[in-house]
Write a structure and sequence with these properties.
6 helices, 6 strands
């Protein structure tokens, strides 16, 4: 499964308004308010924020991957946001983040969830790719960057 199988242009924000960690997460989750794949948006929100309390999903290099599992979705959903102003995210490397990839999956889809998290992490570990995302000026440019980057990775 590819990242672009779950990330769609309508769920990309190329200029996040929020300036704080929880606000950023909520801004991305709010994209799913009227999405038919979401059965209960507040349970989605709770699953992501509860996971964040366990350990920061700010993995370093200016990137965070907030995620959660809940039966309040009927598929794996994803959103991506870019902040022009660095956000204090309590990241593992102690540095702020600007690129945030949100993913929420059903509790029973553990294998797919882990594989996608791994794939996102590998893709985002590429310094040149992160620069392309930071320089992107639209959701189309961000989506195209993901699409092009994934051509260099094998499916897992």
């Amino acid at each position: 499964m590819k990242v672009t199988d779950i990330l769609k242009k309508g769920f990309i924000i190329h200029e996040l308004n929020a300036g704080k960690k929880e606000e950023v997460i909520n801004e991305l989750i709010n994209l799913f308010t009227n999405d038919s794949r979401v059965l209960d948006i507040e349970k989605v929100r709770s699953s992501v924020l509860e996971r964040e309390k366990i350990m920061s999903t700010g993995v370093g290099k200016g990137f965070a991957i907030p995620h959660g599992k809940t039966n309040s979705v009927n598929d794996i959903i994803a959103a991506f946001g870019k902040s022009n102003s660095p956000v204090d995210y309590n990241a593992l490397d102690g540095k702020p983040v600007q690129l945030i990839f949100l993913m929420v999956g059903q509790e029973k889809l553990v294998g797919s969830h882990i594989k996608l998290l791994s794939r996102i992490s590998r893709i985002m570990n590429n310094d040149d790719f992160r620069i392309k995302l930071l320089e992107a000026n639209s959701k189309e440019e961000i989506f195209n960057a993901f699409e092009n980057e994934e051509k260099t990775y094998n499916d897992i």
